[in-house]
Structure formats: structure tokens, C-alpha cells
Design a protein that fits this description.
Layout lengths: L1 H10 L1 H22 L35 H7 L19 E2 L3 E3 L4 E10 L15 E12 L5 E2 L3 E7 L7 E2 L12 E2 L4 E11 L5 E8 L10 E7 L1
Parallel strand pairs: 1-11, 3-11
Antiparallel strand pairs: 2-3, 3-4, 4-9, 5-8, 6-10, 7-9, 10-11
Length: about 230
């Protein structure tokens, strides 16, 4: 290629030679720029700047709003005011122990205080002292931390044996009964009761699940583990 260029340039005089030489120099410079030489001029070989790890700020939610979803509340609000005693368990629905608490998205907090064997039978009770069963009363502490009244009728309790199965049947003891019914006003705390009977063969270690009827199918039901005490 280059021999042809120089052959043609000699026919046109020295001016043609100089022009051709200049053209060749430009052509060589272009090849050097595109060839990625060792001078580091190739932009493609340079390391790219690291992408920024800063992500857009997470959306904030109103943890006390009635329309906040369970998923958003668990993600953004579960640590807020967690644990009356600093136990940090309010945001988790399982693995709770008696005395720990769970708070639903609308601010209603529930804790199972105790499960105690019942011995004060009267003629008004719906049960009698049966040696094949352990009759007991579950006490629940409820605090309405929301902005509107809560229907306690929407709450129900299921008690299951935690050792080798079994489910307690619902019963009722008249003395000092405080069933889950009526409304709990905003800012009010109350202790309610739920009476049960579990076959003795299932032992005294139990799991208490507090259910709540709602149109929100994502609503979780907290589980509390403990033991029936004498």
C-alpha cells in the first residue's frame, strides 16, 4: 500500500510527496488511537467508575394509619416502641413467650399474661373438676395504642398442646370472668380472660394463638408459648 502511495507521489512533484507524507502521518496517528497501545489511551480499557451504592430513600409510612398494610408495618414500624419492657418482640408473630407482646398495624397490642389451672368451680360454671382434663384460664393484656376504638369481639383464642399435640376445648368459669367482648377505647388497657380445658395426656405446655377477624387476609395471628401453672 505504502509503495503505491510513494510511487504516485513522485509523479506529482515534491509538493505531492509532502502532502502524501502528511496524509500518511495522520493515518498512522488514527491507527495508534484506535489500536489501544500501551499508552493507556484506550478509553474502553479504563476501569469504569463504580456505580453509586446509594439507593433512593425508602418510602415512609404512617404506622398508625388504618390503611397501612401488614407488610409495610412489619418492614417500617415493627421496631417502633417495641416491647413494653424493651424486649423487642412486638414485631414478630411467633416465638413469643408469656408476658411478651405483639402489636397489630392499627396499634392494638396483645400479650398473654398467664395460663393458670382453675380450681374455683361453682354451679354457674360450664365445666366441672374432671381428672381427665386440666381446666385453666388464660389472661390476656390488651392495650389500644391506636386512634379509634377496637372491637374485642373480633378476637378469639386457640390453645394447643405444645408437647404431643391436642387442642383445648372452650369452656367458661363464672368467677371474675372478663370475656373478649365489647369495645376497647383508644389509649385504654384492659385484662381479659379465656377459659379452656385440655386433656391431661397432652401435658401443661401450651401454645396460645390470638386470632383476629379482619378483611385484611395478610393479618397475622401471634402465638405465645408457655405453661399452665397451678
Amino acid at each position: 500500500m505504502w509503495s503505491n502511495v510513494f510511487q504516485r507521489s513522485t509523479l506529482g512533484g515534491s509538493m505531492r510527496v509532502r502532502a502524501t507524507a502528511a496524509t500518511a502521518a495522520l493515518f498512522l496517528a488514527a491507527l495508534t488511537a484506535c489500536g489501544g497501545g500501551d499508552d493507556g489511551g484506550d478509553s474502553a480499557s479504563k476501569p469504569k467508575a463504580a456505580a453509586s451504592s446509594k439507593e433512593p430513600g425508602e418510602p415512609k409510612v404512617d404506622c398508625m394509619a388504618d390503611d397501612v398494610s401488614q407488610a409495610d408495618w412489619m418492614k417500617y414500624c415493627s421496631d417502633e416502641g417495641a416491647g413494653t419492657g424493651g424486649d423487642g418482640t412486638e414485631g414478630q408473630p411467633t416465638g413469643l413467650k408469656f408476658g411478651e407482646s405483639y402489636t397489630w398495624p392499627d396499634g392494638l397490642k396483645v400479650a398473654v399474661v398467664e395460663a393458670k389451672k382453675w380450681t374455683q368451680f361453682t354451679d354457674e360454671d360450664y365445666a366441672e373438676d374432671d381428672p381427665a382434663y386440666t381446666e385453666f384460664r388464660v389472661k390476656l393484656k390488651l392495650t389500644n395504642g391506636g386512634e379509634s376504638a377496637v372491637k374485642l369481639d373480633d378476637l378469639s383464642v386457640i390453645v394447643e398442646g405444645a408437647t404431643n399435640g391436642g387442642e383445648a376445648s372452650t369452656t367458661g368459669f363464672a368467677t371474675d370472668s372478663q370475656p373478649l367482648e365489647g369495645r376497647l377505647a383508644a389509649g385504654v388497657t384492659a385484662t381479659k380472660t379465656d377459659d379452656n380445658a385440655l386433656e391431661t395426656k397432652y401435658g401443661k405446655k401450651i401454645v396460645v394463638t390470638v386470632q383476629r377477624s379482619s378483611e385484611d387476609f395478610d393479618l397475622e395471628f401471634p402465638e405465645f408459648e408457655g405453661e399452665i401453672t397451678d
